[in-house]
């Protein structure tokens, strides 16, 4: 990943960044200048709270940090991020166009917007829940141990049945468990995202079961409650989908093509029957 934009920094911005409290920035600036090539510069730092906290070539960063540094903190515009490595592997053609792409593909600009619509249907009350985190880093409920780098989006739909207790539990816990798992794995690759999603589902299910057992059937209002669930995690150009039950995700392209990204976990699905035998 390479970023254009250093030449657009104002003298005042450069002076502010050389302030003693930002010790180490001149070294980062020198390193950046050494990598100038045809007007494109690698930015070897990560900024947070007004100062550099980490140095390294951009390819060692999680997607989104380059944009956070240049566009959000240094306020350098326009920012152009060129992604030259295909992190999705051979399956990328299913989701994304071939070749490198110029534009905002890191962090928040990977998701231009998000919204949801919910219909109660024939139930006496709404049993379903959903969560939308365009940037999971901004969730104030996450503890310091769960806090992630900016630029990871998390969306979840929880299809409750026989009560909303399970879907409400998922709203409070599944994304937090994902954040904790990904932080523990120090995830940088699509494989790490996938492993963190899988581990979060397992961890949430086990924790919910432990609470259920403590209260027992008669005293527990959620002893019949359950929920299907599907989550979508997006970081840069990487997207991971995880689901249990019959919640579905489809990918819709601008040209009208639709790609199904999930397979129902029901006994009406012969593949699922074979899987659980």
Automatic annotation (TrEMBL):
SUPFAM superfamilies linked to this entry: PP2C-like
Organism, scientific name: Hemiselmis andersenii
Pfam families: PP2C
PPM-type phosphatase domain span: 113-277
Name of this chain's protein: PPM-type phosphatase domain-containing protein
PANTHER family in UniProt: PROTEIN PHOSPHATASE
Secretion signal span: none
A GO molecular function held by the record: protein serine/threonine phosphatase activity
